Amino acid sequence: MKKYxxxxxxxxxxxxxxTIPKGKVKTYKQVAIAIKSPKSARAVANACAKNPYAPKIPxxxxxxxxxxxxxxxxxxxxxQKLRLLRSEKxxx
Length: 92
Description:
By secondary structure, the protein is mainly α. The chain contains four helices and two strands; from the N terminus they run H-E-H-H-E-H. The chain has one domain (8-87): Arc Repressor Mutant, subunit A (Orthogonal Bundle), CATH 1.10.10.10. Helix 2 (28-34) crosses helix 3. The longest helix is centred in the C-terminal third of the chain and has 11 residues, at 77-87.
């Protein structure tokens, strides 16, 4: 079996995710702008989806611009994302 190795872009996204404080959320677009790739919101979402370290790398703190949850790559999917955000007192 081939070992997965993340792209530079994924590593950049994951590094930024670690800076989002507990109890706060960002949109995929806000993350894209923060990592200086303002047109790459969809790529940010894909990088979050590939995150093998959830919730240690907190991709659950990234939501859609319309306020929707978006997906969650960790165990339990979107229901778990909602639980994690509620446990951090995010008003969702």
